[in-house]
Amino acid sequence: MKLYWSDVLCPRKVCAVAKYLQSPVDYAYVDLARGEHKTPDYLALNPNGKVPTLVDGARVLWEADAITCHLAARSDSDLWPQDDRQIDALRWLSWAGQEFNPVASQLYFQYVIKPRFSIGEPDAEAAARAQDGFRRQAAILESHLRDRRWLVGKTLTVADFAVAITLPYADVAHIPLKEFPAVRRWHQTLCEIDAWREPFPDIAVAA
Ligand SMILES: N[C@@H](CCC(=O)N[C@@H](CS)C(=O)NCC(=O)O)C(=O)O
């Protein structure tokens, strides 16, 4: 398998899952600053012109959550549960994609991506709106996690990785994580996992 990645948000969870599962992937670094995700060769794999993309034999997969589920299923791992928990995992994947990450990643965009790619100053009004949105959504997460270690059942799933993608950047992205003790505790537990703390391969060794 070949995984096209970059050291940004969406590929982060895929790299974390691949490392966690020790999936047999060759890593191909995509340099976004040089527009490598918009070249004809890359667009032929992923017409969205975004990272990540996984090539597994004849199968080409884009969308980070599909890739994490594929890697887990390929390893027969409970990260993507095959029983009744699967619907709950899907619920949290959808919630992350539609509700939580749009507001959290707006803050990541304002405070991490803009300075990194020199695309302007953070927009304080947009950031304040995103912080309000984050607080509304994080309250739902807080209440769910108050008496739970993981989002689904009693074990780690792809849903934990998907919901948490912005949280490693909480301080630099001005994400008000500190106001949500159960979410913070859950994320600290995730941070005990090497693959979550250090998900990215060495750029120098990636082809
Ligand atoms: N829905 C896609 C989103 C992928 C995505 O937005 N990737 C970003 C990095 S986090 C990207 O490649 N941005 C480059 C661009 O839009 O030009 C997924 O989950 O894989």
Automatic annotation (TrEMBL):
<protein>
    <submittedName>
        <fullName>Glutathione S-transferase family protein</fullName>
    </submittedName>
</protein>
<dbReference type="Pfam" id="PF00043">
    <property type="entry name" value="GST_C"/>
</dbReference>
<dbReference type="InterPro" id="IPR004046">
    <property type="entry name" value="GST_C"/>
</dbReference>
<dbReference type="InterPro" id="IPR036282">
    <property type="entry name" value="Glutathione-S-Trfase_C_sf"/>
</dbReference>
<dbReference type="Pfam" id="PF13409">
    <property type="entry name" value="GST_N_2"/>
</dbReference>
<feature type="domain" description="GST C-terminal">
    <location>
        <begin position="82"/>
        <end position="207"/>
    </location>
</feature>
<feature type="domain" description="GST N-terminal">
    <location>
        <begin position="1"/>
        <end position="79"/>
    </location>
</feature>
<dbReference type="InterPro" id="IPR004045">
    <property type="entry name" value="Glutathione_S-Trfase_N"/>
</dbReference>
<dbReference type="InterPro" id="IPR040079">
    <property type="entry name" value="Glutathione_S-Trfase"/>
</dbReference>
<dbReference type="InterPro" id="IPR036249">
    <property type="entry name" value="Thioredoxin-like_sf"/>
</dbReference>
<dbReference type="InterPro" id="IPR010987">
    <property type="entry name" value="Glutathione-S-Trfase_C-like"/>
</dbReference>
